[in-house]
TrEMBL record:
DNA-binding region residue numbers: 31-50
Pfam families documented for this protein: TetR_N (PF00440)
Domain HTH tetR-type: 8-68
Protein name: Transcriptional regulator
Length: 183
């Protein structure tokens, strides 16, 4: 009897595994053949689920920008309820993959004009989800400043060999937004 495969679940599994591959190799680092090899599937099987590398990248981005992924929690786990804990979780989660994601992002937008980047629906969706989560923590009026502090703080942390702690970055944002550590 042939093995029954839940097509949607397997598609999600492939896209989830591809996140690490994109983060390690960049968007242009591997073609579909290389991605298929890294996933341990045939190229034809990968094309069966994703007609193009762009489709796979979009599915991976969809997964990594889901609410639980932003906080580094499994779907069945709860997201931190205090604003201070939520802020720490979202910064820590982004920090764990920051270098790879920045390389991937810069490669993805390389040689594109500003309007093309501004019109990119995938970037808009990813940006919107992150901003929405920050807005729930610091308020929508200060979410852009918080975003800038997260990105700038994590870049500083990357460049100074992690001398800037997650707690310091979190404190900058809490002080800016006047987030009560116990709220």
């Amino acid at each position: 009897m042939p093995k029954v495969i839940d097509r949607d679940a397997y598609r999600i599994e492939l896209a989830t595994k591809a996140i690490d591959i994109f983060t390690e190799h960049g968007y242009n680092g591997l073609g579909m053949r290389g991605i298929a090899e890294a996933l341990g599937v045939s190229k034809s099987a990968l094309y069966h689920y994703f007609p193009s590398k762009k489709d796979l990248f979009e599915a991976s981005t969809e997964i990594v920008t889901q609410k639980h992924s932003l906080y580094g929690t499994a779907d069945e786990q709860s997201i931190p309820t205090s604003k201070a804990d939520a802020l720490h979780a979202i910064i820590s989660t982004l920090d764990s993959r920051f270098q790879g994601e920045m390389v991937l992002l810069l490669e993805y937008i390389k040689n594109r004009d500003p309007q093309d980047i501004a019109d990119d629906k995938l970037l808009q969706k990813a940006d919107s989800r992150f901003m929405d989560e920050l807005a729930t923590i610091v308020g929508s009026e200060q979410s852009e400043q918080a975003y800038a502090l997260v990105m700038g703080g994590l870049l500083l942390r990357l460049l100074n060999g992690q001398q800037t702690s997650i707690e310091v970055i979190s404190d900058w944002i809490k002080n800016m937004a006047k987030v009560n550590p116990t709220s």
